[in-house]
Specification:
Blueprint lengths: L6 H8 L4 E6 L5 H13 L11 E5 L2 H21 L4 H9 L4 E4 H12 L10 E2 L2 H21 L3 H10 L6 H14 L5 H6 L10 H6 L4 H25 L9 H15 L4 H9 L16 H25 L4 H36 L1 E2 L1 H12 L9 H9 L2 E4 L7 H9 L10 E5 L13 H10 L7 E6 L1 E2 L4 H14 L16 E2 L18 H12 L2 E6 L13 H19 L1 E3 L6 E3 L5 E5 L5 H11 L4 E3 L9 H14 L4 H9 L7 H8 L7 H16 L15 H7 L8 H25 L5 H12 L1 H7 L3 H18 L6 H14 L17 E5 H4 L4 E6 L15 E4 L3 E8 L4 E4 L1 H26 L2 E11 L2 H14 L9 H5 L5 H9 L7 E4 L1 H27 L3 H12 L5 H5 L3 E3 H19 L15 H14 L2 H14 L8 H10 L5 H6 L2 H9 L1 H11 L3 E11 L1 H6 L11 H4 L6 H14 L2 E13 L2 E8 L6 H22 L7 E8 L4 E4 L1
Helix pairs in contact: 1-2, 2-3, 3-4, 5-16, 6-15, 6-33, 7-15, 8-15, 11-12, 11-14, 16-18, 20-38, 22-23, 24-25, 26-29, 27-29, 29-30, 30-32, 31-32, 42-52
């Protein structure tokens, strides 16, 4: 039975001799229709066309291969019906050489066959990404160096203005950014030159006519129109019976102002009007007896409008038009200079590539263009005419992702200039998501607007029916995009013509019958809808219950929500089986999680899902170079290239290639501490090699029985070995490795890199070791990838191990990374996690779109230079000599247009994500104060009367993330779509339920264990009870800060006090009844208390910077500190000047002034000191005071003799480093005075003494050690409390 095509699809298949634009919605079967059209063309009985006379351009190689396979299958099917047909048999032969290809491959075909026309060497090759990046950096460095040697005034000013600090990396970035951007245009040099002079503006009239300013002016008018709507809503509320009618006059006055503003059409007129705008005061609401909510609503709407205008003035009307023009005039030379440098770099880079016979994909496109089109006349050349004769029709798939170069290329070989229209274009502008690759969806929209839906030589056909998704998914998608996608943002009017209409047939859900009751048709429909209705799940990232839990991280929190939802889906969600067409229970492989960006999110999801027993997999595009197996092999290669490197040397020796332990490495380091590590190791290895006479050292081991008594006296190391054993073993391992190393190093000059790596893996056994590691298959695949990259490197213009090592280093330096090898097959039952971009063209039964609460990335509008294909180049006004920076109005206007187009791109990305789902769609995200946000959106929805119109331009244009669009859109439909906030308590409950399920499994395992062999159990117990004798040292850190010790001591004291109090279960809970006015006062006090830490920082900073020897007042000194940016305005506000003044004028302050004049005052001095455990115990900080110490853990089993021996060894051999910062001390004739500032809010001095006495005594001990050579002692220890305004002596 044949396929049943819709009327529109049949038109696409049948229409000929015209340009056709097919606007194909998601899931509309465009690929199937395109294949059918091709088959019909080549099998047409009246006018058959050979398959190689069609040019079929797809977006990816995979799509081209699939298209070729589909067409081949269709031809074979036709042959089954018409066996022996010569024309079909010829097509089956020709299809292998037919031009079913990507645009890059077609351009390469043109250049390979016509290289002589542009004087290109025939043996050119496509450069490797890393190789081209290295070459680009080398060439750019030389270009800048040439300009530095003979700098022009313009170049010097450019460097002075745009280079940051001590590096010119910003200049490199600007030049490369402009170069890459220009390459997406047919004639890059012309494109660059076209924007030189756009800043030459003489007066206001010319400013208003500037092309780059028009979109900004239009945007401002859109915004003001929405402000007008806000005031109309406010006015309507004032006119209601219970509305605040006293506000009507002021609101009406505001409305008139906005109405007059929205009528202004020029930027300068808006500038004058907005700078002069003044608002009437609202009338008093005293005595108002109407609805107080409406009173607040009117005020809120009015303030919203005023805030918008205030923001506009701040962003775009920050100075007079005359000053804007002056800034542009001064920035014009900078624009000319960056264009000149970019053109110079382009020429030098092209010459460097020619010398190496290299090309990149941009080059291939431009070479093809040079072959086909004359740059001066922009007319087709003879070669293009030949292609016109060859191709009967040009078919372009995914046309919405074309750029200007591709458009010019394909039009040049079409027959349009002959008056014959033969271009067939298919795509969906709503799925154009490759703006970052400089795709121009505007090309599609230009034809979309100009082509006719009626019979025409330039005809448009719309495919609306979606044959992928259930009606519930499509309805939700339509409802969301009706509200958020419009011409003003997104460049597409999402209306009935653009909407999706269901065309797929899905089985009805089987009902769960209740005993003795038949379900009605209406109930069945409701249950079916409930199972497939899209859902939105939110988590409140501000929920107090999440504090100090693993869910305090947003990514982990959302991943947990996704995990619980997947658990639920696996139990309840039916999906349609692709093979049988019947409903079945969902599998993990039916589920995909889509993310806007994998970076940071994918790993969290995989970790949480796997931790919850859900198999999940993601393929990342980064992380390859950081894998331990790749790092180890690269370290070995670095060592073979140059052994005089400490880090690669240590890495290889510690790795399984040499097999040394940490202690054995330490032994090697101690061989000669006066030279670098690599020198000590190489010298030792050479000595061992000569001494051994190229024979391995015998592996001598001490007789443990004979030396057991000596062992007890000497003590043993962590492994129970004697020191002599460690040294012998270390030497043996080093010699064994060094022999292999010498052999491998001899191979370096004559061995290809990939073969050298294979030999390393084989000779060291590292290849087998990696295979035996966890995830060994993936790790082995990673090493195989390294072999492939090394083999590819051998084909580049760089040769040898030295260049390969540099090549890898440069790749890492410039963030060129690769994803780890993917070892998960297509049919494995795992949840897949992928980016939305990766999912384009795919479909999945269940789609979870996560990360909806993440903010959009707006970095490209915040750089020093912004670029737009039509508006040009936006630069900051920079005066390097005066160190003045200010964005020009041109930059702000271009940046705003880029921001709006980026928002349009984000809309299309969201559309792609939502249209991947076949049966179930779930959106998840985190949101601060989620309940309040939802309530706000509901109020907005209730206020808006235009239920069938898009959200306001202000709402759409001001979105910072997807939820800012999605939530207002879905809530405008009332309760049609479930929006659920997942409470923190639910997550905790889910964890408990999961634990109970695991406990049930454990019960079965315990029964098995109890039945085990008792003798075997005894042996296992004996092994597992064996303890590491130095466990205390594991629990004790090697380094503490004084603050850590202080807090630990306070915590232990608190715990000790708690033990003496009433147990918690005997206390009766008390619920205090506090009047509201007292609660408000307490909340203010609490808020103030939270600033305590900030106040402490501010006081310490002021006292650190204060000049005690100066005659200036406290106020003058603090003003100077703020001006010199030593303190911030916020810090200054937290410090009471009078309190500081009182301290400075006190006797202590005078002593400090005297010390400062004599150069004996020291402030904020850090120290690091070593203390034995016994010395720390004297301060109450030893390990014995730690309630979690090893002695407590093992007190029931360790003998007193063992404990004392361990303690003796630890005290004799180990030091704990204590670090701290002393606020202030000064030296007087008879000793040192130590002073500590405290801002703690206390009632009496004793509290501070109890808290800090031990800490300050430790400070004193440290000072006496430092000044021990001068025999100085600490004579006074003081605390000054800024809260009590009191000096305290310890």
């Amino acid at each position: 039975m044949g396929v049943s095509w819709t009327t529109e699809q049949q038109q696409v298949i049948d229409l000929r001799n015209r340009n056709i634009l097919v606007s194909a919605a998601a899931g509309s079967g465009k690929t199937a229709v395109l294949v059918e059209r091709i088959v019909k063309i080549i099998t047409d009985k009246n006018h058959p066309v050979d398959i190689d006379h069609l040019l079929i351009v797809t977006f990816t190689n995979a799509a081209a291969a699939e298209m070729r396979e589909r067409i081949g299958n269709a031809i074979e099917k036709a042959l089954d019906e018409q066996p022996g047909d010569e024309h079909l048999l010829r097509q089956l032969t020709l299809i292998h050489n037919a031009q079913i290809t990507t645009i890059d491959s077609f351009c390469l075909y043109v250049v390979r066959n016509h290289f002589h026309e542009i004087d290109l060497e025939p043996n050119f090759r496509i450069g490797d990404e890393g190789e081209l990046k290295l070459l680009r950096e080398d060439v750019l460095g030389k270009v800048l160096e040439q300009n530095y040697e003979e700098p022009s005034e313009a170049f010097s000013d450019f460097v002075e203005g745009y280079a940051s600090g001590r590096t010119d990396a910003a200049l490199n970035e600007m030049i490369l950014q402009l170069y890459e951007f220009s390459r997406s245009y047919p004639w890059p040099e012309k494109w660059l030159d076209s924007f030189v002079g756009i800043y030459r503006i003489e007066n206001r009239e010319e400013l208003d006519r500037a092309e780059w300013l028009a979109p900004l002016t239009q945007n401002i008018r859109f915004v003001l129109k929405d402000c007008e709507q806000l005031l109309k809503q406010a006015l309507a509320v004032t006119q209601q019976d219970d509305g605040p009618d006293m506000y009507e006059k002021a609101v009406r006055s505001d409305l008139e102002k906005y109405e007059s503003l929205s009528k202004l059409t020029s930027f300068c007129e808006l500038s004058v009007a907005l700078s002069d705008i003044k608002y009437d005061r609202l009338a008093s609401s005293r005595g108002f007896e109407g609805d107080p909510d409406k009173l607040e609503l009117v005020k809120s709407l009015r303030e919203q409008a005023k805030d918008v205008v205030k923001k506009l003035c701040k962003q775009y009307f920050f100075c007079s038009p005359e000053m804007m023009i002056e800034q542009l005039e001064r920035t014009e030379p900078m624009l000319e200079e960056v264009v000149r440098l970019t053109k110079q770099f382009a020429d030098e880079f092209a010459a460097a590539k020619r010398r190496k016979n290299l090309v990149d994909f941009h080059d291939v496109e431009h070479f093809a263009l040079q072959i086909l089109v004359d740059e001066e006349t922009e007319k087709a050349k003879k070669t293009a005419e030949e292609f016109r004769d060859t191709f009967e029709e040009i078919m372009i798939d995914e046309y919405q992702d074309s750029n200007e170069v591709q458009e010019t290329l394909l039009r040049s070989i079409s027959r349009e200039e002959r008056g014959e229209n033969n271009i067939f274009m298919v795509g969906d502008v709503k799925q154009s998501i490759y703006r970052f690759r400089l795709a121009r969806p505007e090309l599609f929209m230009k034809k979309y607007d100009s082509y006719s839906l009626e019979e025409s030589t330039t005809q448009r056909i719309d495919l609306h029916k979606n044959f992928r998704s259930r009606e519930e998914v499509l309805t939700c998608t339509n409802d969301i995009f009706y509200k958020i996608m419009a011409r003003s943002l997104g460049n597409v009017e999402y209306d009935a013509e653009a909407a999706l209409y269901p065309g797929a047939s899905y089985p009805a859900i089987e009902m769960k019958k209740t005993a003795g009751k038949e379900e009605t048709a209406e109930e069945q429909t409701k249950q079916s809808i409930a199972d497939f209705t899209p859902e939105i799940l939110l988590a409140d990232s501000n929920d107090e219950l999440l504090e100090d839990t693993e869910f305090s991280d947003k990514k982990t929190l959302e991943a947990k929500i996704v995990a619980e939802e997947i658990r639920h889906l696996m139990k309840t969600q039916p999906v349609t089986d692709k093979a049988t067409g019947e409903l079945r229970a969902a599998r993990y492989s039916d589920i995909v999680i889509l993310l806007r960006s994998l970076s940071g999110w994918a790993d969290s999801l995989v970790e949480v899902l796997n931790g919850n027993g859900i198999p999940a997999h993601t393929v990342s595009s980064t992380g390859y170079f950081s894998t331990v197996e790749v790092q180890t092999v690269l370290s070995m290669l670095r060592l073979l290239d140059n052994p005089r490197q400490d880090i690669p040397m240590a890495a290889v020796l510690r790795s399984p290639m040499a097999g040394l332990t940490d202690e054995e490495l330490a032994v090697l380091r101690l061989e000669d501490g006066s030279v670098p590590f690599h020198e000590a190791v190489l010298e030792l290895a050479e000595g061992l090699y000569e001494e051994d006479g190229q024979k391995e050292i015998s592996d001598s081991e001490a007789d443990s029985e004979a030396d057991s008594e000596a062992d007890q006296k000497q003590g043993r190391n962590a492994d129970g070995k004697k020191e002599d054993d460690i040294e012998t073993t270390a030497h043996r391992k080093l010699l064994k490795f060094y022999k292999k190393y010498r052999q491998l190093r001899q191979l370096v000059p004559d061995t290809p890199i990939h073969e050298l790596i294979e030999i390393i893996l084989r000779e060291t056994g590292y290849g087998h070791y990696v295979a035996a590691m966890p995830a060994g298959s993936r790790r082995t695949a990673n090493l195989n990838m390294l072999l492939e990259k090394a083999a590819a490197y051998e084909k580049t213009s760089y040769k040898g191990l030295f260049h390969f090592v540099r090549y890898i280093d440069e790749l890492q330096k410039y963030d060129v990374d690769f994803g780890e090898a993917d070892m998960v097959g297509e049919n494995e039952d795992v949840v897949r996690i992928m980016s939305i971009h990766k999912s384009k063209g795919l479909e999945f039964p269940i789609v979870i779109v996560s990360g909806m609460g993440k903010n959009f990335n707006k970095q490209d509008t915040r750089s020093k230079m912004v670029l737009h294909p039509e508006l040009g180049i936006g630069l900051d006004y920079m005066d390097g000599k005066k160190r003045i920076k200010s964005p020009t109005i041109a930059k702000k206007a271009i940046a705003k247009q880029i921001e709006l187009e980026n928002l349009g791109e984000e809309l299309r990305v969201l559309y792609v994500a939502l249209t991947r789902a076949k049966e179930k769609l779930i959106l998840t995200g985190t949101l601060k104060d989620a309940a309040e946000k939802l309530e706000f959106y509901r109020q907005q929805a209730n206020l808006s009367k235009a239920a069938d119109r898009p959200l306001s331009y202000l709402t759409r244009e001001g979105a910072s993330g997807y939820l800012d669009w999605i939530l207002p859109a879905v809530l405008s439909y009332g309760d049609k779509y479930p929006v659920r906030i997942v409470e923190a308590a639910e997550l905790v409950l889910d964890e408990v339920e999961n634990q109970l399920e695991q406990n049930e499994d454990l019960t079965e395992r315990i029964e098995e264990i109890e039945a085990a062999d008792t003798q075997l159990v005894g042996q296992l117990k004996q092994r597992f009870l064996q303890r590491y004798p130095y466990q205390v040292d594991v629990l004790r850190k090697n380094k503490y800060s004084v603050s850590e010790l202080k807090h630990r001591a306070m915590r232990e004291r608190f715990e000790a006090e708690q033990e003496e109090t009433v147990p918690a279960f005997l206390e009766e809970p008390v619920t205090p009844t506090i009047p509201l006015f007292i609660q408000r006062e307490e909340s203010v006090e609490q808020e103030t208390a939270n600033r305590g830490a900030l106040r402490g920082t501010a006081v310490h900073r002021v006292m650190e910077c204060y000049d005690f020897a100066s005659e200036k007042s406290v106020q003058e000194q603090m003003e100077a500190m703020e001006k010199e940016e030593k303190i911030t305005a916020d810090m200054r506000a937290l410090v009471k000047e009078q309190t500081v003044a009182d301290f400075v004028s006190s006797e202590t302050g005078k002593r400090m002034a005297l010390a400062q004049r004599g150069g004996a005052l020291y402030r904020e001095k850090p120290f690091v000191m070593g203390f034995t455990e016994e010395e720390l115990e004297n301060y109450g900080f030893g390990a014995d005071s730690n309630t979690d110490s090893c002695e407590n853990i093992y007190k029931k089993t360790d003998s007193d003799q063992e404990k004392e021996e361990q303690k003796r060894i630890r005290h004799e051999e180990d030091l704990t480093l204590i670090q701290g910062i002393i606020d202030v001390f000064w030296i007087e004739k008879d000793g040192i005075v130590l002073l500590d500032y405290k801002t703690d809010r206390v009632q009496q001095a004793k509290e501070l003494i109890d808290r800090y006495e031990t800490q300050l005594k430790l400070y004193a001990d440290a000072l006496e050690r430092v000044f021990g050579a001068r025999k100085l002692k600490v004579k006074e220890i003081l605390i000054y409390s800024f809260s009590l305004e009191q000096l305290i002596t310890l």
